[in-house]
Amino acid sequence: MKNIILLCISLFVCSYTVISQKLDVDEIANQINAYKNDSRGPYKDIRWFCTDGSIRMPKDPCPDNIGPGNQHARYKDEVVALGLTNHIFFGQILTSTSKDEFWDANHNNSRLKQYQIDKYLRAVDNGWINKKSQFYRGAIQYEDEEDWGINFYKWLLSNDDLLQANYFLIRQSLKDIPHNGDDNIAQNMRSQSKILSDLYPPFMDLRVKIHAQPTLTDIEKVEAFKAKHISKLSANQVKIIEDLIATMTLFFKPVNLAALQQKATLLQNTPFGEEFNAYVIENNDSATASDLIQNTSELLVKLRAAIFNEKRPLARLQMLDISLKLEEIIFKKAPLWQPNNIKELSDKICYLGMATAATGYVEQHEWEALNLTLPATKTDEIALGELTTLLQQARSLVEWSAGMVKANYQKEVDIYTSFEPLAYGFIDDKIRGSIALHLGKSVGELGDLIANESALTNKVLSIPNQSTIRGLNPGYAFGELVVVTGSPDAKDVSSNKIYVFQRPPADLKPVAGIATVSEGNMVSHVQLLARNLGIPNAALSFENLNDLKQYNGEQVFYAVSNKGNVIVKLAQDMTTEERALFEKKERKDEKIAVPIEQIVLDESKVLNLRSVNASNSGKICGPKAANLGQLKSIFPEQVVEGLVIPFGIFKDHMDQEMPNQNQSYWQFLTAMFSEASAMESRGMSEADIETYQLQQLAMLRSAIKQMPLKATFVSQMEHDFKTILGSELGEIPVFLRSDTNMEDLKEFTGAGLNLTLFNVVDKAKIFEGIKDVWASPYTERSFKWRQKYLLNPENVFPSILVIPSVDVDYSGVLITKGLTSRNSKDLTVAFSRGAGGAVDGQSAETYLIKDNGETQLIAPSREQYYNSLPITGGTLKKSTSFNEPILNAQNIKVIKQLAAQIRETMPKETDTEYNGAYDVELGFKNNTLWLFQIRPFVENKKALSSSYLESITPKIDTNKAISLFKTL
Fold first, then answer.
1. DSSP line for 691-711
2. Geometric angle at alpha carbon 724, from 719 and 729, rounded to 5°
3. Together in a domain, 70 and 161
4. Which of 230, 221, 451, 430 shows the shortest CA–CA distance to 331?
5. If residue 881 lies in a helix (H) or strand (E), which one and from where to where?
6. Where is the Pyruvate phosphate dikinase AMP/ATP-binding domain (predicted)?
7. What predicted TM-score, i.e. pTM, was given to this entire model?
8. Judgement on whether residues 830 and 726 belong to the same structural domain of the protein
């Protein structure tokens, strides 16, 4: 009996281990393939689920005395297990899901988003995992799903805070969750055209048209295509094309406003109901697309405001359904509004922008920060500069609206794409189904017109819609073009190639050039490195990226001018002048040396941050500690206490004998550089030399991480931690910041190349972390950036700044210069919620604070996840919404005051002649300012002053008068 019990326990433990083990992407992909070929798909069987909790067989309904119950399928065991191990939910049946579980607040609404992605995949892949089980009778009862949907929205829309914070997501979910509403006809139309073009490639041109700019006349084109190709189409392809024609006919059927009004039963005798009634009366028979779009956009704005005053959840549901129908009207009518002149085009942009904001693609405060109306003028003319400002504002709205879709869905799309590549198209489908699609086209038309008038024209191969491309950092490059459509983080990059990413990788290694759909933010470490090294960098649209895929692998010339116009051309099209830019030069001409003449390597004591200042930078410690010590003396209440581990302690440890090498760690390092020089003199290739060096550095890194720490150093750290930071080592969390002598040189910033450890508490981990930071200058990424720019990369010494963690509410970067305005009197500010996001490249809330006092929003935050720093150590990922700005008016006032003090006091306090801009890392906790770093802001003067870049930078007369009634 005892053996049987043990066997049962053993089997239970084994079973639990199998269930609790997370599946990898290949295993999930195999499951999907199995479900596609299974007549029951992800479902096991069908049962009755009774009100009392009992489960009965399909032919044994729930008795009347315990309630009617519901009939639906049960999931296969492995589907349930996948939800437990990976938080991935296939074939979700709403009727069997609790509202809280489906809303999934603890996972940032992941289950709801997965339900939407599942719906998309079923549409584009003939049922997807339900390919053979679409008609598994009884698996899902649509009426029960609709009832569940109504109850779900009744529950969800009763919460004001949830609606305020998640307006976009909730409104989008209505397109997919059954609730007695219509199906998502627009998505069906795009899905059917995609399926047909995949099966029959000659349909691709029509598919592109339907996806990009659908109009009523496309029905005739599809019918003509069918007639022309009927002999080559299979029976299945004929059926798909006929289904597509039926869907398009339904899609382009005019919205019956009177019928829609009759469904708004709960809105009668409400302020919005009266507005809606007046709108219906005025527009029910309207034939003018421009008038209908303007009136509908204005009503959408009123609806978004009114929904928060309306407290009845079912009335809110009716308002959201009306909102979707109004958006559909604008989407259908937008191609029919054909502006004849600049004034009409600007009106169209204004109203499409208004509708884009009202449908949730940007937040209300973001919309209010933009101005899409032309300035008042007493004449029929406008200055080119003012028209360009309108273009910039409108372009921002297009980018922000696309960013809203990505911010809400990118994480789940990335997860699904890893095992189902078709999921990659979900975000594109969402954007193409929005008014922002037509707004983008109109903005492109205005951009083309302004480019004509100003000669600021992009010349990017032969792709369309080039006005959506804008340069960020000036520079030029030549190399292979690599278009990366998926996640950039796992991409192994090369320093002689040009990359186009959806977003910049957090830890970018050296590249020749870069362009991104999501630029991250202007002051991230990646952007500062690109700016510092003169690497051409541009932002472009998602459509631009897709259009560039045809040139993937081609050798191209890429240049960004000082004014931001962009040139990309094939190698064979380069001019003689452009070819001359890349003639072989002596490498050392473009490099600088790390100054080591005054470095002090015999300082073997841990230092109090208060005892160092800017004069110690590059001598006993790096600039982070030296400058922060300087800041501590200037702003004692805004800077934490801290410890500094100087260069000397690192060098003292490196002079110990390295295991199994019969030499010290330092001798091993210098021998590696000597051998590399010898290899070069023997004529070996740069690639072979680099491979050798990286292998040796990997050995050194590993050895440093295992290096014994000297007892005197450990003892002093424990003593000084207590006396300076006020707690025993191991009791409070700290940051360990690498601080080398290679940073903040006049021509090289080194921003973010080496390791910073966040919020470390445990004593053993702090000491391990010290060695990890010492090892970090020898990582491949850090080494490659140094090799690219420094003459003596072997003479890099790390010090370490140890400071207590501050669990800031939001943090970011201040540059005491206008990066977009190029005005040295302006300020650039970028902030993200939590700790470190803006610095690490998150899409940050970015402002230009002008010298005249005006504050201009350059970009809103589009990061839903941020780092918090618990007292127990490590980081916690939390999620946020975008309905409130990160910085408040008081924060901006404090930042202005800080910038003024820095400009006035830093040159005096450091006794230097430096009069350039500063790069400051800072944060706010309960609206109290904390300062974490200050450094000179380094730009690549060579790129900015290049005669070639100057030659491709047009001289623009911003005062040039343009007639508002100029014919387009």
1. HHHHHHHHHHHHHHHTPPPPH
2. 50
3. yes
4. 430
5. none
6. 621-943
7. 0.82
8. no
